[in-house]
């Protein structure tokens, strides 16, 4: 994963992250329980989730879930449809006029592939979505990916590498990349 960083588990830093996850999840639960027309209440809670003022033109339709919140930034006129998940420890940057369909997952975190390291670290890398991108329903964007300006990610697509500007990408598949060491 490009730009991967590691957060060691069982450390003060990982405990602070876990505590922030609890706060973000509680705030998201409150957001998702608001009446749909309580736009001011939604704006206040989004500011708490994301740790500061969000653009007035940001539109996030609940339910919405974030595991950290402090790693996400938004351009102007961003629209995020219902049922989206932002796992943003590694940082999520959304440019201007980004549209995100329902059920999209942007995940910046994971664990090492090697079994002997898997439980000792949380890996993370930023996701950047440039201006004028449309991400279709149910797509998943993985850590370290940049989606170039003006591109379209088709519904259900798994994006595991950079998307060039002004491109349309679709599809899912399982591709064995390598074999890890033995389990024993």
Automatic annotation (TrEMBL):
What the entry lists under SUPFAM superfamilies is as follows:
Trimeric LpxA-like enzymes
Q: Which InterPro entries does this entry report, sorted A to Z?
A: Hexapep, Hexapep_transf_CS, Hexapeptide_acetyltransf, Trimer_LpxA-like_sf
Q: Which domain of life does this protein belong to?
A: Bacteria
CDD domains this protein is in?
Answer: LbH_MAT_GAT
Name of one Pfam family that matches: Hexapep
Q: What GO cellular component entries does it have? A: cytosol
Query: Which region is the signal sequence?
Result: none
Q: PANTHER family under this entry?
A: ACETYLTRANSFERASE C18B11.09C-RELATED, SIALIC ACID SYNTHASE-RELATED
Family in the record: Belongs to the transferase hexapeptide repeat family.
Per its record, how is this protein called by name? Acetyltransferase-like isoleucine patch superfamily enzyme
């Amino acid at each position: 994963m490009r730009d991967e960083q590691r957060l060691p588990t069982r450390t003060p830093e990982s405990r602070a992250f876990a505590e922030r996850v609890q706060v973000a999840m509680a705030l998201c639960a409150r957001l998702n329980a608001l009446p749909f027309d309580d736009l001011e209440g939604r704006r206040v809670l989004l500011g708490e989730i994301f740790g500061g003022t969000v653009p007035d033109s940001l539109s996030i339709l609940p339910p919405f879930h974030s595991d950290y919140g402090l790693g996400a930034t938004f351009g102007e006129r961003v629209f995020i449809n219902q049922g989206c998940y932002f796992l943003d420890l590694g940082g999520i940057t959304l440019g201007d006029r980004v549209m995100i369909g329902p059920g999209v997952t942007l995940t910046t975190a994971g664990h090492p592939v090697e079994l002997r390291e898997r439980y000792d670290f949380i890996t993370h890398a930023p996701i950047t979505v440039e201006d004028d991108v449309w991400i279709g329903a149910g797509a998943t964007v993985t850590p370290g990916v940049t989606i170039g300006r003006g591109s379209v990610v088709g519904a259900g697509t798994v994006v595991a590498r950079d998307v060039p500007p002004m491109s349309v990408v679709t599809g899912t598949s399982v591709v064995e990349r390598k074999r890890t060491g033995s389990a024993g």
